[in-house]
Description:
CATH architecture of the largest domain in chain A: Sandwich
Distance between the termini of chain A: 17 Å
Number of domains of chain B: 1
Radius of gyration of chain B: 23 Å
CATH superfamily of chain B: Cytochrome c oxidase-like, subunit I domain
CATH class of the largest domain in chain A: Mainly Beta
Structural class of chain A: alpha+beta
Largest sheet of chain B: none
Distance between the termini of chain B: 30 Å
Order of helices and strands of chain A: HHHEEEEEEEEE
Oligomer: heterodimer
Strand content of chain A: 25-35%
Structural class of chain B: mainly alpha
Number of strands of chain A: 9
Order of helices and strands of chain B: HHHHHHHHHHHHHHHH
Number of strands of chain B: 0
Strand content of chain B: under 5%
CATH topology of chain B: Cytochrome C Oxidase, Chain A
Number of domains of chain A: 2
CATH topology of the largest domain in chain A: Immunoglobulin-like
Largest interface: A-B, 76 and 87 residues
CATH superfamily of the largest domain in chain A: Cupredoxins -  blue copper proteins
Number of helices of chain A: 3
CATH architecture of chain B: Up-down Bundle
Helix content of chain A: 25-40%
Strand order of the largest sheet of chain A: 3-9-8-5-6
Amino acid sequence: MVDSSLVLWGQTIAYTFYCLVIILLMAWFGYKITRTGKSNIVKPALFYTFVGFLTVLGVSLHLITYNTIPWTPVDLNRGDYTPDKTFEITVGDHEFTLPSDKLVIDCNELVLFDVTSNDLTYGFGVFRQDNSMVFQMQVVPGHRNDILWEFEKPGLYTIRSTEYSGPRGIFMILKDAVEVLPCEGL
Amino acid sequence: MSFKNTFINGAEGLFKPDSLTQMQKIVLRFVVIGLVFYGFAVIEGMLMRIIEVKPVPFVSTNQFFAILTAHPLVGIFGSTYALVFGAFLFLTPYLMKKPLYSVRLANWALILLASGTFIFWFAGFISHYAPLYTLYWPLPADFTQFSVWGGTFFILGIAILMVGTLLFIINIFKTIVYTPEGWEKQNAAALMGSAIGYTGLKNMFAKKENKKEHLVPLPVAAIARGTVDMVLNTTIILFTGVLILVYMVGNILGYDLKETAIDALLYKNWFWWGLDLIADGLVLIFVAGTWYLLAVMITGKKLFMQNIARAALLLELVVSWTVWSHHLLSDQAQPAILKVVSGELVTAFELITQGLAFFIVLATLWSARPLKMTNPLKFLLGGLLGFALAVPAGIMQADVGLNRILHNTQWIVGPHVHVAILVGLTMTLYAAVYILFPIVTNGAKLYSQKLANIHFWFHLIGGIGMGAFMGMAGLNGMLRRTLYLEGEFKSYMLLAALSGSLLLIAFLVFFYNIVMSVGLKGVIGIFTKSKLETKELLPE
């Protein structure tokens, strides 16, 4: 599976480029409307083209991400997949309870994190050593909260609650609680 | 004039509170209250920015989260609602060319808005009630973490505010449809039909000869349609408040009500449906309507493609009722069909409706070249840029794949929320304030254009800068609604705080400029009874 940091990198480039373009465009527009020009008429055809462009853009964004971000189809069709390993985790009174001290995952394993809350709404996120996020989901009491994931890189990962559950929630961190083993021969 | 004289009497002594009608005074009171609460929000926001860099000893963790809970509510309800109420209570009768339905209702709306906001802010400040504005069940009723009495007063404050909102709603709709004394009877149903878009919808399917004319101007249609969303969200917030109060009163009386009686996911859907009627409903509709009005007032020309603009307002209204699921893309129990249809596809329509409004305003401005770069025009351009930056950021996070790594990060609250509110919405409101200022003050002069320029640039750069650095932190994994005690994202937060300080300076400069324009006597005079016995908006 493509690592989520690669997706974030792509998004950063795309959005930064867009921001620069739109800021420059508005600056140009602000300058031009204070000056006389050849024509002040905006043709309706330009307007309809712009609306058409926005429609294509809005829909194609989701089609592109569905076909390029590997966890999207997996997430929407979780029932069709059989995980290699399942971790049942409970949360209550602002504490995670793991099935073992460390969740060990073999190379290329598709794992299911099944998290149950006994009281409040929490979040369940897995983070890299540099604090960047691998993935997260909400943990709602009274409902099943499960996510399938295949880790791209070996290493130690931290679990952290990603939803506010009162001031005590800021301490809901389990450092290096997930260990992904390297593939044999690497 | 000396500094002291200007401070007391205003710039060139031109502002005369005695010359104001009661409607002008009401508008100015709303503006003053709105700016005071904006001051609350910006100062508390700055405090939180500092704490995100390095915790300070005089603000505890519990206090921090109490501020975080009150901050958006004070900003939206105490400040933005006040400015919007004031502007629309003036503009609706102004554009309909008849007096406001009830001055008394307008005054009560102001009193309830101001007192309700102060009560919930003060309750949170004293008791540290901090379930956050998201109120995910059962957190608001978690009395192991929060004071039940603090929570009771907090919710009561919100309820009072919502009653004030209902009075505003009644006043707006009554003003559109009522017949003033001595006038020929007006067709209320036809006026209402035109205002909410029913006439326009019928026209789309009618033959050319059967098409009916629009009885209300386009900005009033925007106000009416945004107010429809306001009716719905006010009802939801009131109902939710009563539900929480039931648990609080039960606890006070010694009954431990079962929290699991409320389904947390259903509650979350209900809550976001109501809240998105504000965030993705009335805000976007009101903003589009205000842009159209500003474009017409600035250029003196007809709006480009105004029939399409009317239709888009109606489309936006329908979109706002079906868009809420983008907040639940990371909730695994949420049905996938809702995530894709409501969360992704309907949300993408906002790119179209806002983009369309953006284009229409730019085309209208373009048609009137050359224009003078006045304060209303430059702030309008700033507002347009704010939404041009924030809406695509929102569309990106409303994607099942990207939401998995963006939800609840600083990305959401930076490039999307704060850029939309501070740059998009607030700069649009500032444009309205600058354009209405001479009208509602009977020709008072702005104290300093230099200060207005500083206000513009500091606010624009500060708002975009803060959003950008928060966004960078978010892309690197920094969560919102939490504290990092080991300084993990310190450099980003330091830059965001510096940008935030520009916003604070911009506000102080603006506030000073306005006070020096109307003078201390003028500010006091706004709150005294009008000496003109007229229901008219402006002195005859």
